[in-house]
Structures
1.
Amino acid sequence: MLINQDLAAFMASPVMIILGTRDDALVPEIARAVGAVVRREEGCVDLAVSEWQWSKTVANVRANGQLAVTFARPSDYVSYQVKGHATVASAAAEHVALARRYIESMASTLGELGLERRVVAPWLVERDLVTLCLSVQEIFVQTPGAKAGQLIEQFP
Amino acid sequence: MTIRLRDLAACFEGVIPSIIATAAPDGMPNISYLSHVVLVDDERVALSNQFFSKTATNVRANPAAAVLLVDPRDGGQYRLDVIFEQTLDSGGLFEEMAIQLRATSTQVGIGEVMRLRGVDIYRVRGVQAVPSPTPRQEVSSREAGLQLMAAAAVARRVSEASDVGTIVDAVLDGLREAFSFKHAMLLLKESAGERLVTVGSRGYERSGIGSEVLVGEGIIGTAASERRPVRVSDMSRIRRFSSAVHASSDEENRTRTIALPGMPDAMSQVALPMIAHGVLRGVLFLESSQRLAFTREDEAALAVVALQAAAALALAEAEILEGPSSVPVVADQSVLTGRGFRVVHYAYDDSIFIDNEYLIKGVPGRLLMYLLRIHQREGRTEFTNREIRLSEDLRLPDIKDNLETRLLLLRRRLEEKAAPVQLLRTSRGRIRLEVAGRAVLEEATS
């Protein structure tokens, strides 16, 4: 299923990426990703994640695949959440390079908002990267306001 | 090492957004940013619920959730393992969070969106630090109990002061010396109740004495209308409530309004209501260019200072009503040492201009004209508060509440403008007019 071009561009821009998963007992877990590649035609998003920092999240995806991802622009809180099923792959060279670029641009974006590099460093970690390949099933508006939580696209 | 919630106080300041993850009964997770997480006690946190409706739905079916908190000083991340307990839509905690949300969201012009629907209480089962490649910084936190000692030191100073002016000074000097808070102002409510007027400040280029804030407007006005402290730890996204930072006396002369002082680069602000006998008397306001300059403990200590100052001020005003009754002896004053000066009074708003410089308006303006007229007529320079209060000429039924405050405002404003007429407080309930040169009094018609 095709992902809207504007949305794809938004997801690949310097936005904060947060991940939600759960274990077998339905206990949720939180993590951050350091970069996204959108494969529009396939309806897929690849996410670079540090397994060293977020081991429980990667284990949850390996176990059940259910994954929710919110992309939020720090300057104005414009946000979208995508949900679907994901698999874990080892990070290809392109994903390692992607994470590098993302960390650079994110640190400078947050720097413009007055956050020092030493403060944002713990959120932008590239140690032991893996790739989560998310097959998107639902897309929601998440920007704070009346439309928050509204479903904008659903793929069978 | 076990991490206690209270060790994470900085994470609850709302500087870096927190995150919550939940899961629906079918297992699908949900991940969302949170605007406010509040520390309730060592075992519970409260989350504001404005619009993250999927989160609210999920925890009602599956109460297990994860919350990620971030320390704004070093970026350190902490994962809380939480269980949803209940939703509150009233009570002290709800009110406190609603006010905080309103005060900060009216600043950014999204008051409507940020209406608080409920406060969700979660029990915290565990706290873990998220691995970080950068070493955690040893951030020096102020020693607990220090604020209490500082508040006691200010209270001592205030207790020694006996009139409105010295009480205001005792509070502001005390904040600077005992707390090391360098930018502060004290505003008192007008008896009409719609406005707060600055009667003293420290740390600003201009004192701003006589400047006004509407009750309900901005952080200061919200603390007044809600009668609760309002604190902001990161102003970087909040528009300044006063754009009048570059005020000049030309501007004052044109608008007959004195601009509120303020720091152009303020990052933290706190406003404390001053209440005595159940009546709001004013607001104590502090600001800093540092993020997180005022902790929750600071806020509590400052709230005590503000309330004690309110009680002292109420007492000082009440005592004045029983001040000396004897009208001072008519002194033969020949104070024609300086050059003459012109005092123009505009009756419609009681504004006063001395040699074309705006001084003040309203009741303090009327008071000055009254004193100068008697001075011209009788040559008298000594006055009692009692005779002013009883004066038929002033026709001020409401003035008895805060005559001292208005006289203080007039006195400080005359001082600040280095006017050729000055007001001195000689003893309790008595004032003296010092006039350098002959005053030419004029009534302006327009």
2.
Amino acid sequence: MDKLAQELEATREQLVADWDEERAARLFAGVGQLKRRRTAARVGLATVTAAAGAVALLLMNPGAAPETQLTAEARPGATHEATAGETVRAGQLRLADGSTASMVGEGSELELLKNTPSHIAMRLHQGQARFDVVPSTGRSFAVETGPYRVVVLGTVFEVTRGADEVVVYVERGKVRVYGPAGAYDVAAGERQAFLLEPAAVEAEEVEEAAVETKRVKRRARGKRAAKSWRSLSQSGDYDGAFKSLQAGGVVDNEPSALMDAADAARLSGHPRSAVKYLERVVRDHGKSPVAPLAAFTLGRVYLDRLGHPQKAAQAFARSRALAPSGSMAQDALAREVEALSKGGDAAGAYKRAQQYLRRYPKGRRVRAVQLYGGID
Amino acid sequence: MGSGHPELRVVDGKAAKADAPDPAALSDEALFKRYAPYVARIGLRLLGREADVDDLIQEVFLAAFRQKHQVRDPAAFKSWLAIVAVRTARRQLRKRKVRSFVGLDTLAPSLELRDPDISPERRALLTRVYQALDQLPVDHRLAWTLRYVEGEKLERVAERCGCSLATAKRRIAAAHTRIQAELTDG
């Protein structure tokens, strides 16, 4: 087993998600919400199919009476003139241009957003509805549901809902399908499929991965130029690495090199030199993934090695600001309390301690935070 | 690659606990309470980013609640969850790559390490490992993570990735070489 594998095996038990009852309850509730959203999306797509079918049917057979297409679930006699802003759960809506919207089954909920002779828009919140659309060239007619919006532009078209995709075939005219990936026009004679699942763009990814591989290899070749201090640092010879640095070793102004240089300085007993490198990471590479770690390490060096608690508190605060929900945020806040306390700022320590206890009531540093924050 | 969930069937039944409860007999909440920490752990290790784990957990349990009544072998249920987790992670990682490619994804790995006294050096190593993983093809990343981070046997890696043993070995070896080169070259 090589060194990397050994390191990972030793770290495995530490690599776990923070899990508590609050998170469990939130996520369990989230599964229910996700289920409802998915159900609504599926029903919505089925409705789109029904609406398209109704449009096509009506355009091909304009003489058909709308009432003959109602299902048994729609309550006869419940037709009424609709007004914008109204939400309908049963019966049939008669729209401003003469079109109708009929609720199908129980539990349907349709909100009428706009209802003028020139502009009709509805949002289906749940359930199923059937739309009988009067042909018109001067009116927009749109049905929104979930992430999709189907706009009727005056056409004859078919929509087919498959297991993994929606297929739109346009016989005459044009439709516009709006979805999570944007709008797409389908013109006469075209057949277009829209994926229901997030796009699995495997081909593009394979190509992209190949490009990435070449890029990594190029970068690796460039970095293989002699940088002995880094090799020494990474092999654990921090004294040798720091001597090599002092002898004129070049440190690139990029985060990983600066962190290696900081390690070499810090772990060879030269904390002031380490500060110089760590501050460069925080100042020049604030968006780097290692910036929070650099700020946290800076705080530790100031507090534990150099005896500058005020600067340490600032560094811990900076670490939190760089990654408010990162893995080090909790420890950074706890150590900020400690630094403020040791720096004589009792009020500041108390304030931050309260913040810690609110945010991490069962945190691993509660006892130390209470102690330094002056909380009994 | 199929987007659906695998059929519930006997997978790795020998390794599973014989006293595993029948998931169909458990309420959704009890099922979630029992298995969610396990899924969260796998999710974090596969994705390397705490912020993405919640979505994975919800997707996995949405499938689990729907299909728990089709379980033939309760002992295999945990393995089935792991397979769904891997498939879900694959979709998320692919989306992340595309978002990253167009500059919409700039988040860094956000790992939770249980031991607060773990050395900064080890934290940094893990961060760099996950940065290197971000450079890999998704299937290579998944196979390598299952092998070296999750500590799975090769046969189990192949099963969870839905590939042959030879393919799993090839992916792991390719990923390992790349990661070691990346760590060595800084």
